Amino acid sequence: MTTKLMGQKVQRVEDQRFLRGQGRYTDDVLVTASGAGVLHAAVLRSPHAHARILDIDVEAVLDAEGVHAVWTYEDLQGPMAEPLPLLIPHPALTHGRTQFALARDEVNYVGEAIAFVVAEDRYLAEDAVALIRVSYETLPAVVGVEAARRAEHLVHDDVPGNVAAHLDQRVGDAPAAIAAAAHRLELDLSIERSACMPMEGRATVARWDPDTDRLQLWTSTQTSTGVRAAVAVKMGLDLGQVDVITPDVGGGFGVKINHPWPEEVLVPMAARVLGQPVKFTEDRREHFISSAHERGQEQHIEVGFDDEGRVVGLDVRFWHDNGAYTPYGLIVPIITSTQLLGPYKPGSYRVRFDSVYTNTVIVTPYRGAGRPQGCFAMERTMDAIADYLGKDRTEVRAVNFIQPEEFPYDHQLVFQDGRPLVYDSGDYPASLEKLKRLVGWDEFPAFQQEMAAQGREVGIGLACYVEGTGVGPYEGAHVHIETSGKVKVAIGLTTQGQGHATVFAQLVADELGVRMEDVEVVSGDTRRMAYSVGTFASRAAVMSGSAVHLAARRAKEKALKVAADALEVDESDLQIVDGVVSVKGAPSSAIDLGTVSVLSNPLRYAFDEASQAATQFSVGDPGKPPVAEDDEPGLEGRDFYSPDRATFASGMHAAIVETDPRTAEITILKYAVVHDCGTIINPMIVEGQIHGGVAQGIGGALYEKMAYDESGQLLNASFMDFLMPYVTEIPDGIDVDHLETPSPLNPLGIKGAGEAGVIPTAAAIASAIEDAERHSRPSMSIAAMPISPSELYTLRQEHTA
């Protein structure tokens, strides 16, 4: 019997192609030796954070060499002249606003698109953009949460107080419980803005075929089907007239789930008008100032607890900076408000947030999507309780854990998908014990004393989280067994490095009984899978994995039915091993899947030697129709998976850090992760996801921030100024252990893993830094992230005895 691939460390099938430089990205599409025939676009972007547009003069552009066309808002018509869509409305989003493809009358952040130029090449297009003259009336800029809250100036004149939304959820009476508690604490915390920064920026290529009235669009996106629908509406086309193909994507991390970007509708519009393919590829500065950021929040927490550290009431108020527009709705702050609770069960809980406008780049999810902020709030609170009571930090967490026998656990809140926040499975006490052993928690005090004797300051910290994964509403898959015996799998998801071609091939090989090398997975092509949601929120394995499994099962059922007729046996007597259907116990009575595929089509043309067992044409039994009412020609399966609610992965991180007593440099000496994503498909890929996430988390904890000045200019819009961790800043070994508590909500028992590594990192490192510093400065607390050496040095000065 073939060895099951589920749970095995199977080498990624994608890697060799990428390592050999054979990746094919959007910028590679329609490139010939000379590049002939493809026009290139460039965008004029606002230099001001807030200004009225008084006049746009494009006269000099029209006669410029190589320029084919220029558009401003006044040139847009019909749906193209309407605002871009608000993708996820919410009743609490009372003042949602989205931008136009090209600014109309006013700009609201540095980088907003104003004019669109198409020329023979990118150099000419950029030169032409520089010829456009715009007259502005500058307006006061609102930068940062505090300025938005003061509302001395408004980002949008029709949005009172700069408040896009206010949301309030509560379970029990938290203020009363806190007032009656034995102990009470208040904390003020903040998280700075950061951004995804994938290696490949946004890119779009379009080709219009006037003979068929069809549009082909290639774009670096996390949702090819969403882009397809948006472009069809904006261009007044039927959905069937638009094909969106997502080639290789050089990273997404959330920024490419927003759609459509202005360029994703402007490029196809230009291609249709000009009758030539048009391409846009943003440069790195454009990505900094005109894509999306995330993370920025200010938080106030009040907590009441008993002598054991058990939380009896938790009251959280926070303010979320959503930038100049809200195309992705309230997803980020809603996730913060609900995922903040982590693995704990407070006696009562109230959370309120305002999502506020600022004259800065829009906010959409960035890996973790509101969870790092929520985890920071909860874990800093747990550390504060432990410090107040003089207890070990692990003890305080343990007394607040949801217990294994309490699952499914209903928090009585509404999650991001509009469904109840109900945890499906987990074992948090077991995870904590694993983490303590992995990082050496109980042995650390002796090590800390040893280091102190050498004049070195070291500290240990931990953080726990729960992550909602596998949010709906659905994903689908199509599995087709070719007459060659090869299996072609189509999924609607896009892929940007997660290993989809490997893990989904593992699932199909297991279910169908074929060799993994005979399975090919195609993703992100609306010609192959027209309906999908997208790759985000750690949902690929849960959603598409389940759909692939179900579709493969359908194909297998049909294969066994056809083979049973051919071999004249009962279906239950058959098995499929290495692509061959045989009778159990009688391996000589067999037929390969390729031949079964031929037989599945009543029009049995057999053009290859392998299929000679089939006749050229046959209608089968004359007593029944060639194709039954409940069947269809071909050997394939198609299915969709739609869950009742999200699954909930969980994990715990611990870090040991050293802080230099003179320079305040922060070095991570050891990092440990215990992770529970339910049933694991491929442990090697899961560990890779965790390692990458931890690296991004370290960036968010120690380096990455968007530095705006008071006028709304981004001061560090390049990799010369925006700090990111190099391999030298990542610990040599990230120790990972797994716990598997299968989810009861899907056929494979899986939960998501993609965002796990980044969620608790800042909280764990803050805890460790504080522990390292507390021996010299007992009153010091880490209340803001990221933290730089200079900021730590300043904190030291403020807390020096």
TrEMBL record:
It comes from the Bacteria. Keywords: Molybdenum, Oxidoreductase. The keyword Oxidoreductase applies. Residues 20-140 form the Aldehyde oxidase/xanthine dehydrogenase a/b hammerhead domain. SUPFAM superfamilies: CO dehydrogenase molybdoprotein N-domain-like, Molybdenum cofactor-binding domain. GO terms for molecular function: iron ion binding; oxidoreductase activity. NCBIfam families: CODH_aero_grp5. This is Dehydrogenase. It comes from Marmoricola endophyticus.
